[in-house]
Predict the structure of GST C-terminal domain-containing protein.
Amino acid sequence: MDLFLRAMLSHATLLNLKPNNPLFGSSLIEYAQIEQWNDFSATEVDANIGRWLYPRLGYRVYIPAAEEAVVAALKRSLGALNTHLSCNTYLVGHLITLADIIMGCNLSIGFRMIMTKSFTKEFPTCREILLDCGSSAKLLQDIG
């Protein structure tokens, strides 16, 4: 499933949930933090994974220098994410939120298709967000 479609579906699904659902955070400040992480996920993680992956799949022209720049940008982004997750279980608050779900969706294609184990060994906590999203019974209960 296309990454943008996943994000769109998660937003559409969550719009049908009750307004005080914990996936939106427990306060307006947490909601704002969730939106910031969603923007970070889209612009820093998903975009760089796409810029790295699409030339390899033949959808764009492969330029080695451009790939180096994209990989460096993705490493910076994953480094920031790794630093945050090394001190926090979830991106926002103490429960799984929409930010975790969207970040997990955006990271999943990278882990499956382009990021090797040697690449991701620098970012051990980034893989945990995928495991948390995939195995959360609470998430499944909240989404329905």
About this structure: The mean pLDDT is 83. DSSP finds seven helices and no strands in the chain.
